[in-house]
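Sequence, structure tokens passed on for absentees:
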Amino acid sequence: MLLLSDVDGLYDRNPADPAAKLLGQVTGVTAEIHAMATGESASGMGSGGMTSKLQAAEIAELAGIALVIANGTHDAPIARATEQGIGTLFVSRGPRRRKAGARKAWLGGRLRLKGALTVDPGAARALAGGSSLLAAGVTGVEGQFARGDAIAIRDEDGVTLAHGLAEYSAADCALLQGRHSREHAGLLGYAPRSAIVHRDQLVLL
């Protein structure tokens, strides 16, 4: 995938800074990489600046697609990027990073999350093994979200482990957190769902 921008690619700082260096290749869009970007286009002509392009790179990575950001303001911009190698190539973090379907790739790259859940180490291990998130493993609830909203799932150190679609509102998650499934019906007053975030609506990051 090729994204044409008003700069040559991702720089380690604002490209207006004479000391800025163009990154030729990025392996995985990490928090450190996000910190290099701003939400504004250098020319004022972009839509979301480098931040939105990094979001696209995250989605592409989850789908198993390499992505290049290159400068589209030059003559023959694609030839310039491919023949001269001027741009930033984003590649996957390695063979252990599983290719996701289109829906999960979209969810993994989504930045506008409505809230977050913090989970204990046991729940974090279960998620890594492909399990759904159960209420017993939730230790904290942030934000105001409804059922079906996209949320982050974090470990106790604040590291984001996954994105998913909530099966309950923030208020109900707070009510259920740390509780075993046998208690849910009594707490909610209705038949509970199988998980706080079902594995089919969740993608690991």
